[in-house]
Amino acid sequence: MEIVLLCGSLRKQSYNRKLLNTIKEHAPSHWTFTEIAIDRIPFYNADVEERRVPDEVTVLKEGLTRADGVIIVSPEYNNGMPAVVKNALDWAASPPQESPLPKKPIALAGASPQGAGTVQAQTQLRQTLIAIDAYVMSGPKLLVGQVHTRVEVEDEQITEEGTVKRIKKYVKAFDEWITTLSE
């Protein structure tokens, strides 16, 4: 099963990168991963799209087209999703008749030092993805609050037992979600 990963944090040692690494570590063995970098995608502009779709956008759309499912791991900035994530989704959704996102199984995850995790960012992401007609997994939600207490600075993954247990439940549910939608 081909899973595309999008990370909404651009920082190399971000908590969301560590969450993404932990998801990969505990995913089913039949999953393969392609992470698509979204940091170099230019801001969406219909004039640019009309002239020539940027190569970074072509890579994004081709990867999403091949994917059996997509996991978006994103922080929350000022009570919302990062601009880089929204921008990638705007490009992927345009033009609508060629978008790879409708009916695509998508799962959301995020980590934050705040207590509520990334609940508001995930709410915005969910609204955007529903408008695009993607199939967003309703649960279990993966909101890792107070993440700084769940990982050592030098670790590449989250190791706190309770969080790892939730991650395992999350990847199992997403695997079942994709399988159900493909039947």
UniProtKB/TrEMBL annotation:
Pfam families: FMN_red. InterPro entries: Flavoprotein-like_sf (IPR029039), FMN_Rdtase-like_dom (IPR005025), NAD(P)H-dep_reductase (IPR050712). Gene3D superfamilies: 3.40.50.360. Residues 1-148 form the NADPH-dependent FMN reductase-like domain. It comes from the Bacteria. Belongs to the azoreductase type 2 family. This is NAD(P)H-dependent oxidoreductase. It comes from Shouchella miscanthi.
